[in-house]
Every structure is written in C-alpha cells, then in structure tokens.
C-alpha cells in the first residue's frame, strides 16, 4: 500500500505541475482530493488493514494529502497571479491617446439672449417679474390704455379662449399686475416670457415669440433716463462702439413713444444689406408710461413718472447670431441646434 501511495503522489504532483490554468488545477483537485477521488478511497479502505497497520497507514495517507494540498495551493497561487498579469496586459489603457470628445449641451440661443439681458438689468438693480401666459383681457389691454374697440388692438390680434381670456400678446400684463400689487411704490422690473399673436409664420414672423419688457416707475423719471438705459442695452448686446437713435412713434400705453435704432454692427453705418442701406437697424419700442396707465394702477401721475420698453428676443438673436429665419428657433432641427453646442475633450 505504501508503494501505491508513492505512485499516486507522483502522479498527482505531475498533473499539478502540468496544469496551465486555474480551471485545470481545480479539475485535478476534484479528481484526486474529492469525495470520489483515489486518496479518499484509500482512507475509506483502511478498514481492511490489520489493527496494528491502520495508524501507520493513516498517518502516511494524511501526510500525502497535506503535501498534495500544499503543492496544489502553491501552484494555484502561481496560476492566479499569471491570470491577473495576463488580464492587466490585455486591458491596458494607453493614457497617451487623445481622449474622446464629450458632447455637452448648451443653452438655446434665445435662452442665451434672455439671460444676457437679465444679467445686465439685475446688475442695475432690476427685479425679474413673471406672470400667466393665459391672461385676462383687462390686464392685457384695458389696464394698458387699450379699451375694448380700440383700433390698436387689431395689431395684436390673439388667440381667445373666451371673451375675457386670451393668450397674452405681450408681457405688458406683467407690468400692469406689478403696478396693481405695488400700490404706488417705486418699480424697477424686466418681464421676459413667451407671447402669442395671430400671425402668418414666415422668415420674420411667428405666432409665438419671446419678449422682454422693462418698466421703471418713481419720482423724477425722465426721458433721459430711458435713453441712457437703452444706450447701455444696445452696447451690451452689439458692442461698445454702437450708437443709438430714437425716432418718434406711437404706442397706446406710452406718451411720448419712440422707436430705437442702433448703428449697423456690420457696416458701421455706411450702409449694407443688413441695415437696408440706411446704416441703422430697428431694435425695439419704448416710451414714457402714459398717465392713464399710471392712474388706473393707483399711481398719482402728477407725482411719479416712468418709462417702459419692449424687445423681441428673436430679433436680437437673429441679428447677433446671423439667423435668417425665425422658424429655426422652434422647429428643433438638430443641424441648427448643434451650432450652439460645445465640446470638452
């Protein structure tokens, strides 16, 4: 039986040495040390030996089992280390290769324009005011000196939900609501938001667009304050070398009213296709708040005054970014949107 043990030990150690993978070594362990393996069979066959031979043979079998187990564990460690090294070699990353660019979303061009204007006016002490897009006729028209039947309403034909409810045609109702709320207190606000008008969509018109309006009310507010504010706005959006001019106009809620033009940023005023050979580009409408509007909101028009202005975000974005069709802002064409994305490598 000792000779059988020696032969078996040599056999299993040889198989351990020739195992080239962890799986092969596990198979050797199961084949020789498992419940059905030859070493276990030897232990089970101890019963046929004489009583005086059992202790000696039991010690020899256990000694061989421990030696085989030790050799197995050592070889297992070698194969596992080799497997880890091979995996690391196969999965090595060349950190000197350039990284893959990561596409990062950016703000919509209209959002960029609105936030740029908001930052300017917040820095001047203005507050941002918001209001409902579904508005009452009173705040959208009547509180702004546009009573029912006023011909100027035709220019702001809108989408009516009922006779007294409509989709707002400008953000001026936010100004009217703020004046009602302030009850005679000074006001300095801008009102950005979406507005709606019944219009035929084309390259320069849309049934919905973004508008930013401003309102200042207080004592001794003059036309020169309005002009200085608009001059700062024009330079902020189109460059410090821009000049502005104010032309007389008419709006029911301001008196006097003006249209503001800026000197053409393309030709510098010499005349080009963008400014239609005039050297000037129309930007916005503005004026001093009409006394009737002040009185309807509870202000004493003899003691306080104010100015207001309104500008279309699309108008600014089209000029600023060279967009030729207002519909690009709303059709979600990825070829257009991706022009405003940024990448980080």
What is this structure's SSE topology?
Layout: H1 2-18, H2 22-33, H3 38-44, H4 54-90, E1 102-104, H5 109-123, E2 127-128, E3 134-136, H6 137-140, E4 165-167, H7 172-182, E5 187-196, E6 208-218, H8 223-238, E7 244-251, E8 254-263, E9 280-289, H9 291-296, E10 305-312, H10 313-321, H11 334-337, E11 342-344
Parallel strand pairs: 2-5
Antiparallel strand pairs: 1-11, 3-4, 5-6, 6-10, 7-8, 8-9, 9-10
Provide an overview of this structure.
The structure is a single chain. The two termini are 72 Å apart. Strand 7 and strand 8 form a beta hairpin. A 7-stranded mixed β-sheet has the order 2-5-6-10-9-8-7, with helices on both faces. The chain has a two-stranded antiparallel ribbon with strand order 1-11. Strands 3-4 form a two-stranded antiparallel sheet. It is of the alpha+beta class and 345 residues long. The radius of gyration is 43 Å and the shape is rod-shaped. The mean pLDDT is 86. The chain contains 11 helices and 11 strands.
Spell out the key features of this protein.
single chain, about 350 residues, alpha+beta, 7-stranded mixed β-sheet, two-stranded antiparallel ribbon, 11 strands, about 40% helix, about 20% strand, rod-shaped
């Amino acid at each position: 039986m000792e000779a059988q043990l020696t032969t078996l030990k040599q056999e299993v150690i040889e198989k351990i040495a020739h195992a080239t993978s962890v799986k092969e070594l596990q198979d050797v362990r199961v084949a020789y040390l498992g419940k059905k393996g030859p070493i276990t069979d030897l232990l089970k066959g101890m019963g046929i030996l004489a009583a005086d031979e059992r202790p000696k043979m039991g010690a020899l079998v256990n000694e061989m089992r421990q030696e085989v187990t030790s050799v197995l564990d050592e070889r297992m460690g070698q194969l596992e280390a080799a497997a880890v090294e091979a995996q690391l070699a196969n999965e090595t990353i060349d950190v000197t290769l350039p990284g893959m660019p990561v596409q990062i979303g950016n703000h919509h061009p209209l959002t960029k324009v609105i936030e740029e204007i908001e930052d300017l006016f917040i820095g001047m002490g203005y507050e941002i005011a918001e209001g409902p897009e579904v508005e009452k006729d009173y705040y959208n028209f009547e509180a702004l000196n546009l009573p029912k039947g006023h011909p100027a309403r035709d220019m702001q034909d809108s989408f009516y939900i009922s006779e007294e409810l409509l989709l707002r045609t400008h953000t001026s109702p936010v100004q009217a609501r703020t004046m009602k709320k302030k009850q005679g207190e000074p006001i300095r606000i801008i009102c950005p938001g979406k507005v709606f008008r019944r219009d035929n969509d084309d390259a320069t018109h849309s049934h919905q667009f973004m508008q930013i309006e401003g309102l200042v009310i207080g004592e001794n507010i003059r036309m020169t304050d309005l002009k200085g504010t608009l001059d700062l706005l024009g330079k902020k959006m189109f460059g410090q070398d821009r000049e502005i001019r104010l032309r007389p106009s008419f709006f029911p809620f301001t008196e006097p009213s003006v249209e503001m033009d800026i000197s053409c940023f393309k030709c510098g005023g010499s005349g080009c296709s963008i400014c239609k050979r005039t050297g000037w580009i129309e930007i916005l409408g503005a004026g001093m708040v009409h006394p009737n509007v002040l009185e309807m909101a509870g202000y004493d028009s003899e003691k306080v005054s104010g100015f207001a202005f309104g500008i279309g975000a699309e108008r600014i974005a089209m000029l600023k970014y060279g967009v030729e069709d207002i519909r690009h802002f709303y059709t979600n064409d990825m070829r257009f949107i991706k022009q405003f994305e940024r990448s980080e490598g």
